[in-house]
Design brief:
heterodimer, A: about 625 residues, alpha+beta, Nucleotidyltransferase, domain 5, Actin, Chain A, domain 4, Substrate Binding Domain Of DNAk, Chain A, domain 1, 4 domains, six-stranded mixed beta sheet, five-stranded mixed beta sheet, globular, B: about 240 residues, mainly alpha, Helix Hairpins, 8 helices, disordered N terminus
């Protein structure tokens, strides 16, 4: 398998990208519209066709309930985790959602889990890459925020599978960025990557040593980013509008989306201008206008960007490094374009950050580098190796509801730990294990990853069985668990109940459903194209009948052509695109003579020095060859 | 999270390469270079080191990087599933070993456990657990610290009382500050003491008797316990001062 077809994907909160290794340098693959960024927006049109990216953005304003964005914020989370999100994002939960169930979000009349929605975006990226390569793409490296927990990582991997991708590796976004940076710089030293994106913040500190990229410490906040800044501005605008214009638009999806687009534009403008004007046309014709100065903007966002300070300091502390020991600070993520953010980073590290990289693309480029490494490497990547860490400690609940940490945060992955369990009651055959992720001492303050039931423990006197449980975090940061009763050597059966995730069966079903949808999509596209082609040939025939050539045909030829015409019209009313195609071909064959005669008329007219348009041939009837020939659709 | 039972180490390590049949080394076959199923060896053996405590961390790091380049799952992304599994086992083992050996305290504790010494309850984990559950933990005050600890605890008691009352006593703060400084010095001194013991241990590995080694292990355990005790005291002081 050629490594060039393993792609690197940055599945972002706001935008997603797909990249590949073009010889010695990574490059982003543009979409059909020429744009490198595919907005992570998914919409359903009137026919329930899935629309992704830029075209889907229009639906946010026109039919807000048929479109979703920032779904990454919901990956691997439960309904009780997202109450904050629901205040600021127009997510509509499925009506029959039960607590503890994987979230389902309504788009139009349909329900989708966050991995399914992300899979739509991934499938679009896959299509873009396939169009670019002219061949299928089935393997990918996908990036995730470094601070993503097990459930969020698993959800991302599931999304890849649903999109029909074999996810070779999940790579942490700041680490991917460091790969792109390191490939270019080829320098040893300590690098800090400060990554403030649309919805997540990561800080990673790496040691670069002769091609080894060793992450020393990582920290972050998976719910902190440009979205939070937008929401602040939206809230202010809505308050203004209520105060000044007496309109309460908080429940108006369309108005909120208009305001959202306007504040995003204003935010971007303020990175290069001292002030800007918000100007939004509201439903009902009223206008909301307001001047925003950069000073005011900076004051407003200070509390948001200050939330990056704690994680940054903690990462430095965990790495046992002082800020002045960092050789370079690399900025990643669109939000690091904000001058105030750059100023904050400069203050934290006492040095000017490196801003040469395109903060929107560097993560995808790094993912492409990692894809190349996994594909066997090339001359430029063969010495490169990424050693990443687990961002959160892994623990198990012990007596008293306390977390016993068995793999500490910032441990290089893959990492493992072995624990021994026994039974409390004679003849006990089940042992329950509660796995947690987080830094807090009490189990209830940590993230519940899963509850395991070790079954089939051979009945023995209490305390006699010795059950060895091995926890292993793989290179994707995902946990695997295996267990064995040592005295009998019997492998215990493990029943996994992920606290917030899809089961393998569910993912498989979604993958199959997506094939069904894909088939449905394919069929619908074929129908549309066949009908269009039929209309063209019918129109051409109608024109041909007015041509003198029509009268030169025998009456049998004319009635045959008319019968075939009727058959095609009938086929068009059906829903079998193959029948339409057959009727088109038949009509084509049946009008061959007409076409030839028309061509002769055209040629002799040309020889007589007459203008072509006098022959009755125009652009609707192709000027060469068959006048009612097949139309080309691109 | 995924559950898999294939990750369990085999109890019967083969001594021959699965691929070419020649005698294998710990991680790779000497003849054909293929990755091998992990064998349950201790962390020192994993790196090919003797069970000694004075360890050159620079060469440990070098060895870690060299083994990572050959064992990491990234290198096996296109390999057969079985080899991928072995790479995962081997590289997780490598990382666990490196993490343990590079840290001087973890390394010492690991060696003690390897030698069959049960670490006392005064471990960091034990302490944290006790703190979280509010259980009273039995702590034996090291003799040389008895007087100092008694006095410090009185001061801390006073400080807490004052804090409650909203009072401020610079003299008391100074006393506590001094005691803290002295504790921190003691903490560093204990580490130096531990390093002395390492040297003794390493010598005993080469030429000492079973009894010599037992004695040194006991000494190291004692130093570690005292050091943990001092660390917990410093933390208490810091919390009281906050």
């Amino acid at each position: 398998m050629s490594s060039s077809h393993i792609v690197g994907i940055d599945l972002g909160t706001t935008n997603s990208l797909v990249a590949y290794m073009q010889g010695e340098t990574p490059a982003v693959i543009p979409g059909e519209d020429g744009s490198n960024l595919v907005p992570s927006v998914v919409a359903l049109d009137g026919n329930n066709q899935v629309i992704v990216g830029n075209p889907a953005r229009n639906y946010l304003i026109e039919t807000p309930d048929h479109a979703v964005y920032s779904v990454k914020r919901l990956m691997g989370r439960g309904v009780e985790d997202i109450q904050e999100e629901l205040k600021f994002f127009p997510f509509r939960l499925a009506d029959d959602l039960q607590p503890g169930e994987v979230l389902r979000i309504k788009i139009g009349q349909r329900d989708y889990t966050p991995p399914e929605i992300s899979a739509f975006v991934l499938r679009q990226l896959k299509r873009n890459a396939e169009r670019f390569f002219g061949g299928t793409v089935t393997k990918a490296v996908i990036t995730v925020p470094a601070y993503f927990n097990d459930a969020q990582r698993q959800a991302t991997k599931d999304a890849g599978r649903i999109a029909g991708l074999d996810v070779l590796r999940l790579v942490n976004e700041p680490t991917a960025a460091s790969l792109a940076y390191g490939l270019e710089k080829r320098k040893n030293g300590i690098v800090a990557v400060y990554d403030l994106g649309g919805g997540t913040f990561d800080i990673s500190i790496l040691k670069l040593h002769d091609g080894i990229f060793e992450v020393v410490a990582t920290n972050g906040d998976t719910h902190l980013g440009g979205d939070d800044i937008d929401n602040l501005l939206i809230t202010i605008a809505l308050d203004d509008i209520r105060g000044d214009l007496g309109l309460d638009l908080r429940r108006s999806g369309e108005a909120v989306q208009r305001i959202r687009q306007a504040v995003i534009e204003a935010k971007i403008a303020l990175s290069s201008q001292p002030s800007t004007k918000l100007d939004v046309e509201l439903p009902g014709g009223k206008r909301y206008q307001r001047e925003i100065s950069r000073e005011m903007f900076e004051q407003l966002i200070q509390p948001v960007i200050d939330r990056t300070v704690g994680p940054t300091k903690q990462a430095l502390k965990d790495a046992r490094l002082k800020p002045n020991q960092i050789d370079e600070v690399v900025l990643v993520g669109g939000s690091t374009r904000i001058p105030k953010v750059r100023q904050l980073v400069q203050g934290l590290f006492g040095r000017t950050p490196h801003t040469d990289l395109n903060p929107d693309e560097v993560v995808a480029l790094g993912a492409a580098v990692q894809a190349n490494i996994l594909g066997g490497g090339s001359a430029v990547t063969k010495e490169m190796l990424l050693l990443d860490v687990t961002p959160l400690s892994l623990g198990i609940e012990v007596a008293g509801g306390v977390t016993d940490k068995i793999i500490l945060r910032n441990s290089t992955i893959p990492a493992s730990a072995t624990q021994y369990y026994t039974t409390q009651v004679d003849g006990q055959t089940n042992v329950a294990i509660h796995v947690l992720q987080g830094e807090r001492e009490l189990a209830r303050d940590c993230r519940s990853l899963a509850r395991f039931d070790l079954k089939g423990v051979p009945p023995m006197v209490a305390g006699m069985p010795r059950i060895e449980v091995k926890f292993l975090i793989d290179a994707n940061g995902i946990l695997h668990v295996s267990a064995r009763e040592q005295r009998s050597g019997k492998e215990a059966e493990i029943e996994v109940q992920p606290s917030y995730g899809l089961t393998d069966e569910q993912v498989e079903k979604m993958l199959l459903d997506s094939f069904d949808y894909a088939e449905e999509d394919f069929r619908q596209r074929q129908m549309i194209e066949a009908r269009r082609e039929a209309d063209t040939i019918l129109a051409a025939l109608a024109k041909g009948k007015k041509n003198p050539a029509w009268q030169e045909l025998t009456s049998a030829e004319r009635s045959n052509a008319e019968n075939l015409e009727k058959a095609l019209v009938a086929a068009e009313d059906g829903d079998d695109y193959q029948a339409i195609r057959k009727a088109i071909d038949a009509l084509n064959a049946g009008t061959m003579h007409l076409a030839e005669l028309m061509m002769d008329t055209a040629v002799s007219a040309a020889l007589k020095g007459k203008a072509m348009d006098d022959t009755g041939l125009d652009e609707e009837a192709p000027q060469a060859g068959h006048p009612v020939g097949k139309a080309e659709f691109k | 999270m995924e559950s898999k039972s294939s990750l369990i180490l085999s109890d019967e390590p083969t001594t021959r390469c699965w691929s070419c049949g020649t005698m294998r080394a710990t991680h790779f076959c000497n003849a054909c270079g293929k990755v091998q199923p992990a064998v349950p060896v201790d962390f020192f053996t994993f790196f090919g080191f003797p069970r000694k405590l004075e360890l050159d961390t620079a060469s440990l790091e070098k060895e870690f990087y060299a083994l990572s380049r050959r064992l990491h799952p990234d290198v096996f992304a296109q390999a057969a599933p079985q080899e991928r599994t072995w790479s995962l086992e081997q590289s997780s083992r490598l990382n666990d070993a490196y993490r343990t050996l590079k840290d001087p305290i973890k390394r010492t504790e690991y060696l003690l456990r390897l030698e069959g010494v049960e670490l006392s309850e005064q471990s960091k984990q034990g302490t944290e657990k006790a703190r979280a559950t509010g259980e009273l933990k039995k702590q034996v005050v090291p003799e040389d610290l008895l007087e100092e600890v008694f006095e410090l605890n009185m001061h801390l008691e006073e400080l807490r009382a004052q804090k409650k009352a909203g009072e401020d006593d610079p003299a008391l703060l100074e006393e506590i500050g001094k005691a803290k400084l002295s504790l921190e010095e003691k903490y560093d001194a204990l580490f130096n003491e531990l390093k002395q013991d390492w040297r003794k241990w390493d010598a005993a590995v080469d030429s000492g008797t079973e009894e010599d080694r037992k004695k040194i292990l006991g000494q190291m355990l004692d130093v570690l316990n005292r050091r943990n005790y001092v660390r917990n005291l410093v933390r208490d002081v810091n919390e009281a001062l906050e």
